[in-house]
Amino acid sequence: MAQKTSELPTWSSKWAFILAATGSAVGLGNIWRFPYIAGENGGGAFVLVYLGCVLLIGLPLLMSEILIGRRGGHNPAKSMGLLAEICGQSPWWRWIGFLTIVSGLLLLTYYNIIAGWTVAYIFKSPSIVTLPPSEIPALFSALIANPWEQFLWLSVILISLFLVISRGLKDGLELINWIMTPGIIILLSILLIFVCRLDGFQQGIRFILQPDFSALTAHGFLDALGHSFFTLSLASGSMMMYGAYLNKETSIPRSSLTVAGADTAVAIIAGLVIFPIVFSFGLNPNAGTGLAFETLPLAFQKMRYGSLLSMAFFTILFFAAFTSIVSLVEPAVVWVIENFHVTRTTATLINCLLLWIAGTILILSLNYWSDFTPFGLTLFELATYVSANILMPVGGLFIAIFMGSVVHKRIIEQELGWLSTTLSFRLWYFIIRFVVPIAILFIAIRALGLI
Ligand code: TRP
What we know:
The chain has helices at 14-25, 28-40, 44-72, 76-86, 94-128, 135-145, 147-165, 168-195, 201-209, 218-231, 238-244, 252-280, 288-302, 306-340, 344-366, 379-405, 409-416, 423-447. The protein is mainly alpha-helical. The radius of gyration is 21 Å and the shape is globular. The termini are far apart. The mean pLDDT is 95. The chain binds tryptophan (TRP).
């Protein structure tokens, strides 16, 4: 039987795609990392550098991934292999596509667990506000120390993931993004209105937005670079997969710009919500789990409607995590379908079971097995390190090389809708060939802790 070039469905509309890609990009990083690194590295000065990095590095790569996906029309591995063959190069490029699927799955192993914590805290919110303040950090340590509780929440996440993904593109992925991505923006906006009246509002705004160029160091610069790459969900297969569902009429440059803009806007609004709260109650800014599960609950305790605010905040975190999770598993699911010719339900089940086993191991690495530390890291830390600091930069580098030296210019012209003689094309091509690879080398050197 002759193989059809593409059997995948397409998004119902351009907006379905934009919402889903934005849902993928907006994740935990936007809420608990960006605002803090911005504040620590000179506020508005950092934001400017970050915008530059998004435009110069993130956006061209995002466009490349969507282009590869749309032209290839399959899972990222097959899309890259096919495209390489069409351009007279080795089909071995499919292994780079495969690598991105693996890095996405590895990221998922721990992202699922954190998503589980956010759901746990939605339910804990009413009781959190009644606890004595000294108990708040203990509550989080108790969760980390309790494998059963985490296993329960991980299972909730994976069962929900199974239910969404097995329903397919329109009834699963699209539906969840129609609900959750606007949900993040609406809930954040409600919190923002609430936060405006707090005493620390001015101080919070100054922390995130007032430019202080003297606080901007070379490390701050590299953090902006690295974050612009991570926040757009690059090199994890997701954007290539979402691109494969995109119709030919939608402009890749314009929709990519919308996604990058929405992602940045959410990150800034998150900062405008979080840091006024932190400063109003005399707390110190921090990032990551400490900010979300320890510092902010302390503030919610002292606020009117604290338990509602806390529930809203953890719901935002959960929505942000879950819309990223669905985009991370989708490439692996389609890879299984296309390679083993099984139904979507079976492919989803296989992936969820795999993630369940891996997740359970990582949960145990936080408590019972915390002494097992190959390379000086627990398995949980190792998964975060290898996926974000090694596999993703490597994948990104090869995607840039692939675009810059394998894919024919004619194909790029058609996909981006730019003639190769135009300034936009030439600038983009130069960036992909020279600027992005060098920038990714710097990201990798910084991520590996070498500078
Ligand atoms: N963009 C996500 C965040 O900011 C993290 C992330 C990295 C991601 N790569 C991804 C999410 C791939 C989905 C798919 O938190």
